[in-house]
């Protein structure tokens, strides 16, 4: 659901640029504003999930996100669309961060490191779904007048349909349990045992009563005081351990890694459909011939000439290229899931950072659109996986009562960087072809260097 919330606008831009009179700066802001919403809600959601549990806030988060997605489909101007995307990001930040914790807490230690990567795999599948749906809806180019000030276009329908996954996700969670780990931490062992029995029955097909464990040990309860406290005081008491040893050093390091990696990954990822559209438009205006990537990107750079707004709806290549990039990510996730425990989290991060940096340089030097596509697919896959591996590190190093808060704050750092990156990226494009891609390469080389500072994973937190 998170990938849909952050990525839909990337496919809307080419179709809506005339209807909404979008400039490069507007497109950057529309990409960035969702991340602005996630930053605004990071602290709130972390506190809610670490005190109220995982299930109920997940239900509320997904359903509310679906409602804002529906409202965005009725946008008639850039301002209203930005407001809806901001609130969509505000709501979606919590469920996305908590989903990683939810999956990890439902699995034992030997499978836990794979869960964020499985979540990333599902996101990659979602990135295939988006261009697939866009290839049917956006070229329709219809105009449906519902009222004097309410007109729907093909891109409006695209946004409306993308509300369905969030609404369905919220309904699915009605039938899923709370995590037994959270229940035990809250001292609710009887409820936790019932969840274990249900999972046992589903996995084995045997009756719940045959579950061999009858009594659960008493875990240290989360420190909730009886006297009245303000929301801010409760929140500070919840996160204060992060700013002291033994967590402070690792917390700063994973925040830095997520900051640089997410800035690079989510900036280029959200501009890919626009870059593919530029390649497609160049071929459209040049009798189908290709050229170097820099020559083809010149069609989206602003000029001093006043030109009539034009939308090229003959853009099947845009969606095919997007689906290829996403399919490569799916394959990469499958491979990494199999080798993550063999290589180790830290070694994997080093490999991902260095190779992704090389792919970003390769994009700039691509002599042909097909070569550029190969490097883009490589960069997107490796950077996407890298951001999920960092969440595995968080699960390894932080205890149950801090995990969701830590994930939320770490992702706040990354998304803040992604917001800045999407605002800066169009400025870099206006400067020329080199600055965007060499900037991406530099970010990932820094991640490669920082990964050497990570300590060995601990297994004592469950």
UniProtKB/TrEMBL annotation:
Q: Where in the cell is it found?
A: Membrane
Per the record, membrane topology reads:
Multi-pass membrane protein
Q: Point out the coiled-coil segments of this chain.
A: none
Q: Is Coiled coil one of the keywords?
A: no
> What keywords were assigned to this record?
Membrane, Transmembrane, Transmembrane helix, Transport
Major facilitator superfamily (MFS) profile domain ranges (all copies): 1-459
One term under GO cellular component: membrane
TM spans, by residue? 29-49, 56-74, 80-104, 116-137, 157-176, 242-261, 318-340, 347-365, 371-395, 407-425, 437-454
A Pfam family found in this protein is Sugar_tr
Q: Known SUPFAM superfamilies for this protein?
A: MFS general substrate transporter (SSF103473)
| Gene3D superfamilies assigned to the protein according to its UniProt record, in alphabetical order | MFS general substrate transporter like domains
Q: Which residues form the signal peptide?
A: none
Give the UniProt family note.
Answer: Belongs to the major facilitator superfamily.
Q: What is this protein called?
A: Major facilitator superfamily (MFS) profile domain-containing protein
* Source organism of the structure: Cryptolaemus montrouzieri
